[in-house]
Design brief:
The complex is a heterodimer of chains A (364) and B (107). Chain A has 364 residues and is an all-alpha fold. In chain A, 79% of the residues lie in helices and 1% in strands. Chain A contains 14 helices and two strands; from the N terminus they run αααααααααββααααα. A two-stranded antiparallel sheet of chain A has the order 1-2. Chain B has one domain (5-106). Helices cover 73% and strands 4% of the residues of chain B. Chain B has helices spanning 5-18, 26-47, 56-77, 82-101; strands spanning 49-50, 105-106. In chain B, helix 1 (5-18) runs antiparallel to helix 2 (26-47), helix 1 (5-18) runs parallel beside helix 3 (56-77) and helix 2 (26-47) runs parallel beside helix 4. Chain B is elongated and about 45 Å long. The chains are: A mainly alpha (364), B mainly alpha (107). The A-B interface holds A 55, 62, 67, 87-89, 92, 255-256, 259-260, 262-264, 266-267, 269-271, 273-274, 277-278 and B 5-6, 9, 12-13, 16-17, 19-20, 26, 29-30, 33-34, 36-37, 40, 43-45, 47-48, 106-107.
Chain lengths: 364, 107
């Protein structure tokens, strides 16, 4: 008897393991996605916040070199200068920062769903779904106790409840196997009334029921994750979801942003170079050295800005989200999960490097 | 409707690059650099504006920008043509500054 039970335990375990990839597998790509969004957001927010200060910096360099003849809030044509008025309004920057915060909140939610506290969340979901199983741990303890007291009616009731849940969340093949297993458990419980060694098989049965419950929890969590990703991404038929819309907006907005930063830095370094060329004869060695040092700083920032732009970060976050969606909306087989893990790991590393570079351009 | 700021940004970039090109005379370098900065500022302002309809002025500015970019592209290959290209940029500036005045709202 004990051998048969153990075989069933292994069979049930194999059925669950060989089917769809579990939520455990989802943790790594989702954690990478969340990390990418956080890293990317930090850099892009800084790039937005540094737009006006960069314009002020360029203006002040031109005042320093004499290319701008006056340091004024309003120029001679009546237009505000970058020190008189921000080129980008605070409302316009705040709207973009809010969009980035929404992206962060979404990534955090996915990470929380796939995280270590997810089973507790799923237990709550089971209760709210009206299933009679209640607290899984408690139920398992009760089952053990009931079997120990040989209360067959209660064991039957609990097994029926588990069988019902299995029927609603597992594939037919899996549910049939579980039902067979529970029937066997039932037969054993009946036999236990006459068998003084009943406790010997209680342990493997207990483990198998635990396995069923874990599978249920994982299914529930995976279902929530898939739902969240598909809703956020949108579909070809239903149109883009909110996260795709935000990413598209930022993508369009940031398209020329990197080029603008490079142009601003080049304009400032050209102004310094022209000043150096025209005045080097009258400048002291120390003044020339100070000016060339300033030129070099601008040159370094322009070089980095040419190689790493905020739009490249958004583009990679988009690619990562597309990959998550493609996996979530597929049959979610293990080989696809492995591909997803490699893809998101690579994108996460790219974003980390790009984010560092974008932050370096902003620093003075 | 938005103005084609990508082309304007390219023009600013090219002019600023000419401002650092040692093959040009000091005067032409200076002029290209200062014009590049003006185009850059106009691009920033135009990027934040929307236009209600396709006016003659909008069309004229778009066409003139295209021609100026072509002219400057040629000037980059034949440095002696730079002075003429810079004249063209200066006249484009006047049209763009008028265009800014008829934008309907800020983004």
């Amino acid at each position: 008897m004990l051998r048969i039970t153990t075989r069933y335990v292994i069979s049930v375990a194999l059925v669950f393991a060989a089917g769809c990839a579990s939520v455990d597998g989802f943790q790594k790509p989702i954690s990478d996605f969340s990390k990418s969004v956080q890293n990317g957001n930090t850099a892009i927010s800084e790039a937005y916040l540094q737009r006006n200060p960069l314009e002020r910096e360029v203006y002040l360099i031109k005042v320093l070199t004499g290319e701008e003849t006056q340091l004024v809030d309003i120029d001679k044509n009546g237009n505000p200068t970058p020190v008189g008025k921000d080129i980008w309004s605070s409302e316009s920057i705040a709207a973009r920062l809010n969009a980035l915060q929404m992206l962060s909140a979404y990534a955090e939610r996915l990470a929380a769903l796939a995280g270590a506290d997810a089973p507790q969340r799923a237990r709550t979901a089971i209760t709210s779904a009206g299933a009679s199983i209640g607290n899984i741990d408690e139920t398992l303890v009760q089952l053990r106790r009931l079997r120990a007291t040989k209360d067959l009616e209660e064991v039957k009731k609990r097994n029926e409840s588990l069988s019902k849940i299995a029927g609603t969340i597992l594939t037919t093949e899996q549910a049939n196997l579980v039902t067979k297993f529970l029937a066997l458990d039932q037969a054993k419980s009946e036999a236990a009334l006459k068998d003084i060694t009943a406790h010997e098989y209680i342990v493997p049965i207990f483990k198998a029921v635990g396995l069923l419950c874990e599978a249920y929890l994982e299914k529930k969590i995976e279902g929530e994750l898939v739902h969240a990703i598909v809703e956020a991404h949108g579909t070809v038929e239903g149109g883009p979801g909110p996260v795709t819309e935000i990413l598209d907006l930022l993508d369009r907005d940031l398209k020329d942003s990197g080029e603008r930063t490079v142009t601003a830095l080049n304009s400032a370094r050209r102004s310094l170079a022209t000043h150096y060329d025209q005045n080097k004869g009258e400048m002291s060695f120390n003044d020339r050295a100070a000016l060339l040092k300033r030129f070099q700083e601008l040159d370094d920032r322009a070089t980095v800005a040419r190689s790493a732009t905020p739009s490249e970060i958004i583009s990679r976050i988009k690619q990562a989200h597309d990959a998550l969606y493609n996996y979530a909306s597929s049959a979610r087989k293990k080989p696809n999960l492995e591909e997803l893990i490699v893809r998101l790991d690579g994108l996460s590393k790219d974003i980390e490097v790009l984010a560092e570079a974008v932050l370096a351009v902003s620093s003075k | 409707m938005k103005f084609n700021c990508a082309d304007l940004l390219k023009l600013a970039n090219d002019l600023i690059a000419l401002g650092m090109d040692g093959r040009l005379s000091v005067n032409d370098r200076m002029r290209a650099g200062v014009l590049g900065e003006r185009v850059r500022i106009i691009e920033l302002v135009l990027d934040a504006k929307e236009f209600g309809q396709l006016t003659d002025l909008f069309r004229q500015a778009t066409d003139e920008l295209k021609r100026t970019n072509e002219c400057l592209e040629e000037a980059k290959q034949f440095v002696d043509k730079t002075a003429g290209a810079l004249e063209k940029v200066a006249s484009l500036m006047e049209i763009l500054e008028r265009l800014i005045g008829v934008a309907i709202k800020l983004k």
